[in-house]
Each structure stands twice: as structure tokens, then as C-alpha cells.
Amino acid sequence: MPGKRGSQPGYDVIVVGAGPAGSAAACECAKSGLTTLCIEEHGTVGYPVQCAGLLSNAAFGECRVSERSVLNRISGARIVTERGSGLQIDAKTQKAYVVDRGALDREMTEAAAHAGAEFRLKTAVYGVHETAILTRGVHGHEEIPFNILIAADGPRSTIARLLHMGRAKAFLAGIQADMSYECDPRFAEIYPDASPDFFGWVIPAGKGRVRVGLCGKTQVPERFAAFVKKFGSNSTHLVTGTLPLGVMPRTYGHRTLFVGDAAGFAKPTSGGGVYTGIRSARHAAAVAVAACEQGRYDDATLADYERRWKADFGRELEIGFRFFEMRQNLSSQDIDTVILALNEPEILSAIVRYGDMDRPGVLVQQLLKKPALLRILAPLLKSGVRSLFS
Ligand SMILES: Cc1cc2nc3c(=O)[nH]c(=O)nc-3n(C[C@H](O)[C@H](O)[C@H](O)COP(=O)(O)OP(=O)(O)OC[C@H]3O[C@@H](n4cnc5c(N)ncnc54)[C@H](O)[C@@H]3O)c2cc1C
């Protein structure tokens, strides 16, 4: 049962959004004994899907779910360019899962509900009035008090807008189609030329199905139409979404902690946001628990959240964003040069050994130790990456 604040029922923590970050935060808060309410504007958690469903082993582990949502297992990647150069990285052991995101999100929500979090579906938050949120939905209009608010409301975060918070540095648009297409189910394919701002992908999702998509800054529908036609015209499910890159300037304030895509935590190298989203949610929950125990909700108390996520993955996101910026200046020809330079047995084995989808900085550090590679890459990458490690 919710706790009482004055004459109105209130909650220790209200989480806005029941994506993976919101459910993880709600689960941790409820497990710690906080009265927790999670509010989701849709009637079904996990839909519409806005994801390719590719999760590293570590990211899938962070979800703490069964393997019910698993559709395929990935052990490597292929980079395919229009100019004919290519690269195959084969770890020969499972590196990632392809999941049904709808099913995964629902299982995470069920775990949070089981831990004691309350859920209110088909209810949208449209206002924050000091220490209460304003909602409209199946329960009509409500004003619900909170001690701590966790904003897990995704890339378009209403809460960030209502509280006049700074936003992520860049927003990419993404489109993806589910299609019948035969390819080697062990490899995720990356197509840099499909989107010069970012990249295109083909993710094998099991049973002869693939997810063909791309993210980019400009001309996204046109580029997607040109890309997808190479794989047929039998799409049965279309996904569109927004990818926020470059963390918002401040991830706390006004008794609120911003987690997941609401904070801009998607990885700028891959667009993956589940790993960092869930980890940020657990840091936020730990800070919310401490704040509620002490009865202190001021910025000095909440600043601990930013210290925690920065110590965990802040540097990776910073390095990733530098790569994203460099990528904007790489031509097709530059990418071929990079691929040719990487396509050496010694480099490929370093990629297999140190490559980590969630922490690519480790691999970059290793590659920067290879003088032959540096000689080729330095003119393209300028001094940007090196300076991050100095
Ligand atoms: C095309 C595309 C492909 C992607 N592929 C991958 C991938 O393969 N792997 C990966 O790790 N990541 C991928 N991502 C990123 C990933 O989907 C997100 O990073 C992840 O979903 C973020 O989780 P979240 O819980 O922060 O936000 P979301 O999953 O966006 O959840 C936010 C929730 O908040 C709810 N909400 C929003 N506003 C309100 C409101 N006012 N009131 C109540 N509820 C509200 C929404 O309905 C939603 O359920 C992809 C993204 C895109 C666009």
C-alpha cells in the first residue's frame, strides 16, 4: 500500500516509464522496501517495440530475466561496404543475444510487480507540480505526491521538458523492418554506407527472419528505402524510433533522477541503450533508497547518482561520443581504409580478445598500442581518440 503524505496518498518513489530502465529502477526500489509506483502511458508494456533487440551477454545478464525472450545467439559481426571491402569478426563463442524486446520488457515489469512495485498503465504524466506529478489516464486526472521521481520516460522525456532540463547532444531517427531473409544466423551485419551519419544493420532473429534497419540524422526514410530493398519487400513489422546520444548536461535535480534514454545514455558507437539504461536505473534506485532513508531530497544528496554512473560507464560514453563525432567526417573511402587496416590476423585476434559491445574503450586502448595501425588511422582520426586516454 502506498505511504501517506499529509492527507493524500503518496509514494517514496514514482518511476515514469516502464521500459527496461523504468522496470529495473522500480524493481530495485520496491525490493528495498520503498513504496514505489511505476506509470506507463501504454496499455501493454514493451509495445511499440523501438529496438533491434541485439543485447551483449552482459546487457542480457543485466535484465535478470529467463531466456523466454531469446530468439537467436550471435558469435560475431560482419562489416559490409559498398566498395567491396569487408571484415568478419568471429569469436566462435556466443557474444550476444537477439531478443523479442516486447517479451523481455514484460518479464522485467513482472519482476518489478512481483517485488512489490505498483503499476499504473494507460496513464500519462503531463505535469510535475513541486513534489507531485499530474497524470491523466484510465483513473482520470490525478495528482500523486512523491519523495523521489525517477524519469525513465525514454528519448522524448516529458519530465526533462517539464523540468526545463538540458537534453542529449544529438538525436538520431531509426527505422527497421522485420523480414524473411536467409543469412548466417551467427553474424550481425553492419553496413556503414547505408547511413553516413551512423550505420545500417541486419540482425538475424532466428527462423529465417532478420531485422533490417538504420539510424541517422538526415534523409533517414529515403536511405532506409534504398537499403531495405536489397533484402526484399516482405516486411511484416516496421519499427521507428529515436536514439538520444550524448548525455544530458545534468542527470538530477528537482528531486528527480534521469535514467536510460531519458538521460541520453544510449551508446554513441552502437546505439545500444539497454545495458547503460539498466545500470543507470540501479544506480538511481540505490541513491533513492539512501535519500528516503535519510529523508533528504536536496541536490547535494542526489548528486551521488551522477558520481555513480560516471564512475561506472561515463568514460565509455564520452569516448563513444568522440567516435560518433569522428564518424560524421569519415567518407566511404575512409571507412574502407579503416577496414583494410583492421583486416590483419593480429588485429582481428585483438578485436576478438578485447572487443566488448558495452565497453569499446578497452579495445580502442589496445588498438592504439599497434604502431602500424596508428600510422594508417591517425590522419583519419586526428588526435581525438588519443587525447581521451592521455
Ligand atoms: C531503431 C532502434 C534500434 C535499437 N536497437 C537496440 C539494440 O539492438 N540494443 C539495445 O541495447 N538498444 C537498442 N536501441 C535503444 C533502446 O531501444 C533504448 O536505449 C532502450 O529502450 C531505452 O530504455 P528506457 O527504459 O530508457 O526507455 P524506453 O524503452 O523508451 O521506455 C520509456 C517508456 O516510458 C514511457 N513513457 C514515455 N513518456 C511517458 C509519460 N509522459 N508518461 C508515462 N509513460 C511514458 C514509454 O511509453 C516507454 O514505455 C535501439 C533504438 C532504436 C530507436
Description of the structure:
Helix content is 37%, strand content 28%. With 390 residues, the chain is α+β, with helices and mostly antiparallel strands. The longest helix has 29 residues. The protein has twelve helices and 19 strands. It has three domains: 179 residues, FAD/NAD(P)-binding domain, CATH 3.50.50.60; 107 residues, D-Amino Acid Oxidase, subunit A, domain 2 (D-Amino Acid Oxidase, Chain A, domain 2, 2-Layer Sandwich), CATH 3.30.9.10; 62 residues, no CATH class. The chain starts with a strand and ends with a helix. Helix 9 runs antiparallel to helix 10. The site of flavin-adenine dinucleotide (FAD) has 41 residues, from helix 1, strand 4, strand 10, strand 13 and strand 16.
Task: Detail the topology: elements first, then pairings.
Layout: E1 3-5, E2 8-16, H1 20-31, E3 36-39, E4 54-56, H2 57-63, E5 70-74, E6 76-80, E7 86-90, E8 96-99, H3 101-114, E9 118-120, E10 123-129, E11 132-137, E12 140-151, H4 158-162, E13 170-180, E14 187-191, E15 199-204, E16 209-216, H5 220-228, E17 237-245, E18 252-253, E19 256-258, H6 274-294, H7 299-327, H8 332-342, H9 345-354, H10 360-367, H11 371-381, H12 384-389
Helix pairs in contact: 1-3, 1-6, 2-6, 6-7, 8-11, 9-10
Bound molecules: flavin-adenine dinucleotide (FAD).
CATH superfamily of the largest domain: FAD/NAD(P)-binding domain
Overall number of strands: 19
| Secondary-structure-derived class | alpha+beta
Q: What is the straight-line distance between the termini?
A: 52 Å
CATH fold label of the largest domain? FAD/NAD(P)-binding domain
